[in-house]
Amino acid sequence: MKPTTYTILGLLAFYAVVMVTSAVGLMNDYILRVINLMMINIILGVSLNLINGYTGLFSVGHAGFMIVGGYVAGFMTTLLFGITKDTPYWEALPMFLVAILAAALVSALVGFIIGLPVLRLTDDYLAIVTIGFGEIIRVIFNFITFKKKVGNWELDIGGPRGLLGIPPLSNFTVIFLFTLFTVIFIRNFVFSRHGRACIAIRENEVAAHMMGIPITRYKVLAFVLGSTFAGIGGALLAHFIQLLHPTMGGFMKSVEYLIIVYLGGMGSISGTIVAAAALTGLSELLRPIGELRMVLYGALLVVLMLKRPGGLMGQREFPFLLPERERKIYALQNR
Amino acid sequence: MLFKIVNLTHFFGGLKAVDDFNIEIGPRQIIGLIGPNGAGKTTVFNLVTGFYKPTMGKVFFQDEEITGLPPHVITSKGIVRTFQNIRLFNNMTVLENVTIARHYRMQYGITSAVGRFPSFHREEHEVEEKALEYLSIFHLDSKIHQPAGSLPYGQQRRLEIARALATEPKLLLLDEPAAGMNNAEALELMHLIKKIAEEFRLSILLIEHQMPVVMGIAERIHVLDFGKTIAVGPPEEIKNNPKVIEAYLGEGALQ
Amino acid sequence: METFLSQLIFGLQRGTIYALIALGYTMVYGVVRLINFAYGEVFMIGAFVSFFLVNAVSLPQPILVVLALLVPMVTCSLLGLAMDALAYRPLRQKPRLAALITAIGVSFFLSNFVSYSSGETVRSSAVASFLLAGFLILYVLGVKVLNFPVKATPNFKPIKFLIPTVSLLLIGYIFWISKDLLTELRWKGSSFASYPVDRLIVIEKIPLYKSVYITNIQIMNFVVSVLLMVVLSYLVNRTMTGMAMRASKNNKDAVALMGVNVNRIISVTFIIGTALAGAAGVLSAITYPRLTAFMGVQPGLKAFIAAVLGGIGSIEGAMLGGIIMGVAEQFAIGLLPSSYGPSRIDFTPLADGVAFAILIVVLLLRPQGIFGEPPREKL
Ligand SMILES: Nc1ncnc2c1ncn2[C@@H]1O[C@H](COP(=O)(O)OP(=O)(O)O)[C@@H](O)[C@H]1O
Ligand SMILES: [Mg+2]
Mutate which of B15, B43, B214, B222 to test ligand 1's pocket (most atoms within 8 Å of Cβ)? Predict the structure, then answer.
């Protein structure tokens, strides 16, 4: 059997175990919830790693793109399509997929509009512009309110109270498939001439430019791709936790994604997956200590940079995540 | 004429780093550019390859004006350079460093990359073969999967030249390729440069700080001092030119 | 005309606060090319230190006003020193990204620390600070504590321990006086505190022209900021340290070669920048008395944008940028329809977007800002 086969079997087994245990009632709802959140965080972490890890940019507004996707998809399913809790799932699903696609496209567009002017300049500006973006998104979503008819009532939704009543359309299967799609997409991108171009820019921008790589185009590409997947993650998250709040797009949330990337390792998909899962689990465990968790996160970021700037995995990958050729090279390197 | 620079001038603030520089390079010529430290040699390279925009003057390549084009476009036209201070992609493997140079010659798009379509596999296979050819010329083929940053200094220098060659340039600009090498190593490198120039039908503009090294291979030498061209001619003439000797003595006095 | 004038006065006041914070950004960026994201948090801490002090001590009014401004400035500069020494200095030779990430971490840590704080945690922090200070003192006196060996290195200078010890004592003291207050106020970081302005100053409106007036708080605000900026200009233009600071902007290596201790220059830059941010926090608290742990995020961001607008690295630029930013924002607030107007929808929150719009325009048209030099070529 080829090694890739093992990876596929492993994924199928994971999927089957979760499905079977929840079908026969062995799976605790809470644990399933945590697993789903882990996978959504993997989508956000891996996509941010493409921007900050592989390409060496510094976006601090990933949550902003996430919430743009969330709001776009949420508006569409609740207002445009009028999906409620009672809509049969198979009827709602195609509309949900359309909404996710729209979320991805809008996030991509916003990423492009922001990235194009800023990425021509020194790297610092991206940080400040993306922080500003997160804050401005919050202001805008705080501002957008509208009326919605539910039964005989007209409700004010949106605004500072957030978007409520989003139908629970993200189930384990949907999230699992999108996570898989994201990881495979970004892995295949990274291990191609395009990904190599991004890494070369991170390693030495001047030399990359001289070797014929259009650096601004690739920076924008990486930024837009990362933002697109953030939008997808946001759409999934919105339809999983069933509500959106303007503050979810702000600086605080973005820092959580930064920690996932830098804890896992800049330029390691495997590291990001481990860190996303670990931090999601950890924050559930740390829920009793409340805000202290945030204090610890801030300290963690500082200590990480001082003591272990490479994160857990550096730039290494688990062999089973690598494409075939890279896996062979990995075997040669580690003989 | 393959390559021509006309009246090139560049200011850094009030400092005239390059002052009315002119040069013509024909096909398969090796030309030397020498001068004491700070004479403006590297700045000429930076101007030609699009990292700086010249204050004045024009650059032509194959009868087309290329002044002020961005570096990646310059590369695709057929001019490439190495750097005085080595600039490798340190965390990438030796092989990847060279495949990057083939980037702009590859075709497959993002869809093919993500979907792993046949064009992806075909081109990736081709690029690896090609990269290995270049690496074997420079005797680096036993180290292809090592991170470039882990190579010893001399090999890093050679990798940089291999990487530049892999873009298949018509004009190669080498910025002090023998810097930090002892005399024997430097001479060996010069033989290699001469060999590849013949093999790949290249023109080379070579900056070298140490005069004896460049004397052996250049058919003509331009000498810069404080941005000005103080002498042009074949090596024997330059060797005995009093102005050149003075410029180098002046530097010697400073050191 | 009258609305224009009143808006201008309010705008200038807003602007001086932004300018004070922007100065810190621009000075540190000029010397170490680091965006110290934590200035917004320093601003917030300045406001809180003043808040605790004014609540905790009763002194004659003029003395209290001076202390309410000076103590936060001193505390904040100690904080700035600590930030630099612990978080940024070790990373100076590393890629710039690492320091940038650290700065985000520091900022996140500080705001959440305040947000988390309560009577209990503050008391433990006070005890910890005192213990640490005591430990340092014993260390200097050569007493062996907990088997911790005292190094008798030849260049051991007790004076080096003076600043950390004093700062720990001061911070411990501030924690200590604030702990009872926190308990008394049933303070929870996530809530907000009201700055007791009336203990410092009784608001008076002084008519200027028809219905246009200026308050004594605004006057105080202008006087203090102008004074601080004059002192700053003197420091930067007339003292040796200031000259070294300006020289470091162009070429750090050359300055180091001339025998100047670059790390000391950087420390001084941090001290000045954080002191100004602390002062801005106090001035802001007197004008907008509602304090929260996250009150620094927005002003910090806007002040940075002001610094970019003025030309990052340029001191005059930061002052001018701050003023422009404050005035622009105030006019936006004035011009946007509010909930009292005919539309019944409150558009004023959108004024927060003005800063962002300015940023985008600057980056598109003149990325180096008003007074900035064009970006240095990369090679
Ligand atoms: N980016 C720059 N900004 C300002 N001055 C520069 C810059 N690059 C080079 N210089 C100055 O231009 C002159 C020529 O430098 P350079 O071309 O590197 O000399 P060479 O390569 O001949 O040793 C020197 O005086 C150097 O200090
Ligand atoms: Mg040079």
Answer: B43
